Amino acid sequence: MSSQKYLLTSIMNAMRILNLFKTSKSKELSVTDIANQAELPKSSAHRLITTLCREGFLSQNPRNGKYRLGLSLLTLGGVVSVHKEIYRDTFPFVENLVRQVNETCQICLLEEKHLVFYYRVQRNEPEHLITNEGRKGPIHCTSAGLVLLAYQDMAFKDQVLSAPLQRYTSHTMTHPNELRERLQSIEGEGYAICDGEFYEGYSSIAVPIRDYSSNVVSALTMITPSKRLEKRERSFYVSHLKETANDISEELGFYGDLY
């Protein structure tokens, strides 16, 4: 077999493996399951699985050795079904958090240089918010965006901060050096707070979520009118957010100290 044909065959088999998770009743499959369902020799399936794991398209559950879709697929724009598959089991944690703090909470992701409001659970009497599911927002003036940016590598931080930063309200911070200092503080404290920086009269608090690779892959955030936030100690919200983010991170395969 020519090298070009071998490469094409490998790519097609890798896609067959990934497609198994679209039709499987289980979100996790063993090597044997994958080999049988994809009609591949077990050795070939194992080799492809190893490559897909290395590239982040699959991840292994350390509890049972089975494989699930990996978070690298989140970088492929528009793959909503993959998002849902990876985060589905974490949604009850967000729902429970909303009951605890009685505020609207969201899971947010990075997509290139934008924040994506991915999954939201509203409080009983929700306010009208512009952070609808699937909508994109800025990184530099949202608590979720700042949390995600704080844990990225320096090259990405410089790329974001060197671009023109839009001022949304009178409270929006746009000076790169001030934002760099702020990011250092966020990384040290493990949370970010924004007061009216993106949407006048609204505040948000966010904490990081890690996956099996220990990387920060998303953020858990709470959004509330600024006046209501002032009525309670912020430590109350931060502690509940961190506890929930820890539960979500464990569900995504992270086992360690989140903060």
Structural description of this entry:
- There is one protein chain.
- With 259 residues, the protein is α+β, with helices and mostly antiparallel strands.
- The protein is built from 10 helices and 8 strands.
- The chain has helices spanning 3-23, 31-38, 42-54, 80-87, 91-101, 143-150, 154-162, 176-189, 226-229, 234-251; strands at residues 58-60, 67-69, 104-111, 114-121, 136-137, 192-195, 202-210, 216-225.
What is the compact description of this entry?
The protein contains 10 helices and 8 strands. The chain is of the alpha+beta class and about 260 residues long.
Global morphology? elongated
The main pleated sheet reads as: 6 strands, antiparallel
Instruction: Name the structural class.
Output: alpha+beta
Question: What is the number of helical segments per DSSP (H or I, 4+ residues)?
Answer: 10
Order of strands in the sheet with most strands: 5-4-3-8-7-6
Percentage of residues assigned to helices:
40-55%
* Helix and strand sequence: HHHEEHHEEEHHHEEEHH
Q: How many whole angstroms does the radius of gyration measure?
A: 20 Å
Beta-strand portion reads: 15-25%
Question: How many beta-strand elements?
Answer: 8
Estimate the mean pLDDT confidence: 86
List low-confidence stretches.
77-81
Q: What's the oligomerization state?
A: single chain
Terminal CA distance: 51 Å
